Amino acid sequence: QLQLVESGGGLVQPGGSMTLSCSASGFPFAKYAMAWFRQAPGKEREGVSCINANSRATTNYADSVKGRFTISRDNDKNILYLQMNSLKPEDTAVYYCNTPWSTLDWGQGTAVTVSS
Question: Which of 26, 30, 65, 93 could share a disulfide with 38, CB 3.0–4.6 Å?
Answer without folding.
Answer: 93
